[in-house]
Amino acid sequence: xxxxxxxxxxxxxxxxxTAGASTGAAASAATATSLTTSATAVAAASAAMxxxxxxxxxxxxxxxxxxxxxxxxxxxxxxxxxxxxxxDADLGDTVVAAASGTVVISAHQGSTNGFxxxxxxxxxxxxxxxxxxxxxxxVSAGATVSQGQKIGEVGNTSKPGNNISPHLHYEVRTDATSxxxxxxxxxxNGVTFGYPVQTVTSNNxxxxxxxPYTPEQVCGSGYSVIDSAxxxxxxxxxxxxxxxNGYNCVATFKRTSLGSKTxxxxxxxxxxxxxATDSGDYGYYAGPVRASAAGTCVKWGGxxxxxxxxxxxxxxx
Length: 317
Prior knowledge:
- Its EC number is 3.4.-.-.
- About 15% of the residues lie in helices and about 40% in strands.
- The protein has helices at about 5-20, 30-50, 215-220; strands at about 65, 80, 95, 100-110, 115-125, 125-135, 135, 145, 150-155, 170-175, 185, 185-190, 190, 195-200, 225-230, 235-240, 245-255, 260-270, 275-280, 285-290, 300-305, 305-310.
- Strands 1, 2, 4, 5, 6, 8, 10, 11 and 14 form a nine-stranded antiparallel β-sheet that branches. A four-stranded antiparallel β-sheet has the order 15-16-17-20. A four-stranded antiparallel β-sheet has the order 19-18-21-22, with no helix packed on it.
- The chain is elongated, with a radius of gyration of 22 Å.
């Protein structure tokens, strides 16, 4: 169901209760409970729909290895990031905002939680990111930051007596429930991190924070990203799959010239069938291009900003 439909349903219920009260009908406990439940559903849907398009919290092009099992302190889907071959190799490396937002914490946590120098960013819609153990913090509480902006440096600060090697401790949380259930699986460039360990190359190249859409929103309910390809710094083309109906979907997202109509395209070709293409002058994305492809190889790709990607026939399962 679209978020607007949920909101309208909640408003209709609220108006119905109000109308009943105006004609003298007493509001029952059951009605109040129903209204509260509806409001809770609307709030939860709002948070789910507002998930930002997070990128890796490191500069464009860098590759970092994340590990969710590296610390006994981990409760859920937290990730510790390193990329150097020695214990201190990452000390002082730049950490950037995974998405735009407002800094709500920039402080040394001391003995409070072992985070040491912590930056917490509010991305709106009930979504937050945490960047812990920083050597230095480059932003202050209350500051507005853009995606890809430097917010600190990799460090090993913690609580007194806790000697740790330099790394970035990264978390994504929501306000939908309490800790640690509110820690969410991290997504980078639209793809869920490959828990427990994966090496990821950063597409945090600037400009993407203003794109208000995600591949999942564009392709629709039931679709999940299974592959992606960067189009230089101009955009990214995504391949998604829906396990419930066997359909693939392709969409090309712009990073630059957002809101301005520029040549952008996306295509999907199921082996043995005619290629389907969406091409035109678009402000934010091209697509979605969908086709039934269960058990069949597909060729996919797209272009924007003078860069293009063309896959071989693949994803044949």
